[in-house]
Amino acid sequence: MKLKQRVVLLAILLVIFIFTKVFLLDNLEASAASREDQRAFQRALSGLRVALEPRLEHTLQSPWEIATQWVVPREVYPEDTPEMGAVLHAMATKRIVKADVGYKGTQLKALLILEGGQKVVFKPKRYARDYIVEGEPYAGYDRHNAEVAAFHLDRILGFRRAPLVVGRFVNLRTEIKPVATEQLLGTFMTVGNNTCFYGKCYYCRETEPACAEGDMMEGSVTLWLPDVWPLQKHRHPWGRTYREGKLAR
Which residues hold ATP (predicted)? Predict the structure, then answer.
């Protein structure tokens, strides 16, 4: 091989070597960055994970009193909440001592009083997890698990302004009916082998009840804000009406 050809071949090999080294270094740096991203994600996930357990490590031994003290003008719960799991556990397990029709609104819900005097809002399951609601954005019913998702998204984003929500199964026959008011009890019915109720709200109808599977009903439980904090109504800047061609103010 002539000297000129050898030089050209060496130059090509050198260029290949340099590009290979740069590529490998880039990949190693990218892999290291990816691993660090994964570690950061796992740390964040670990900080957000909530274990539902009844134990309270607080001078106050009432989960309701603890949750009441969390509320301040700009947030519903603090960033560091070691008692969060105990409060959510209480919401999911405490005995129901009274059940009434839900607070006014468009969607079916029940107002429950839990042991210790805490108000919560129970929103029943209306759809299977994979059911798709077709039609307008306002078509169909609210999904109970959307309430749970909204609360945890609020935690992830660090807003801390959504009320606490947890999923719960209730036995309508043994847990709700014995403590229900006459107004709520009057909306109960049996459809097939399932216990159902339709409650009171703007769009609640006897022909569209929420039904349990037998007597067991899945739903979401939302913690009622302390009564010392009155709510103000603010008009939504992107409000809409439900009438064709009619615009909101």
Answer: 107, 123, 222-225
> 111 labelled as ligand-binding?
no
User: Is 231 part of any known ligand binding site?
Assistant: no
Residue 3 above 60 pLDDT?
no
Q: Is 223 annotated as a binding residue?
A: yes
225 labelled as ligand-binding? yes
**Phi, psi at 181, each rounded to 5°:** -70, 165
Residue 3's domain spans which residues? 1-41
Q: Is 249 contained in some domain?
A: no
Domain count, the chain: 2
142 is in an annotated binding site: yes
177: which DSSP letter?
G
Is residue 188 assigned to a domain?
yes
The answer to the question of whether 64 is labelled as a binding residue is no
**Greater model confidence, 223 or 203:** 223
